[in-house]
Design goal:
GO terms for molecular function: cobalamin binding; isomerase activity; metal ion binding. With 131 residues, the chain is α/β, with parallel strands linked by helices. It is built from 5 helices and 5 strands.
Length: 131
Amino acid sequence: MDRPIRVLVAKPGLDGHDRGAKVISRALRDAGMEVIYTGLRQTPEQIVNAAIQEDVDVVALSILSGAHNTLLPKVVELLNAENADDILVVGGGVIPDEDIPFLKEKGIVEVFTPGTPTSTTIEFIKNNLKR
């Protein structure tokens, strides 16, 4: 039997709001995934270290602070530097539509904005795993 999909849910930067991260963590867990939640105010380096230590399949970044164009690409860059480019990186939170193409160009595979059904996120992860 395959092992469950392992997802690291992380809140990069100085963002102090984690309700969305907790909602998505619960939804992914209820869908049978193993979820590791890093908590608030994580640096990109801390997120990447945790992702590698936990041997995750997916890093789900939740951001509301407005620093998404800096912090999310930095996580992808650090994962690539660690030869961990087999990890699927998705983002979510308050991200303006006009910033999404830039984030995708930088390696964020998908961006989920407020109001996205959790089922959409779950299906996307299941259908786009790199393992």
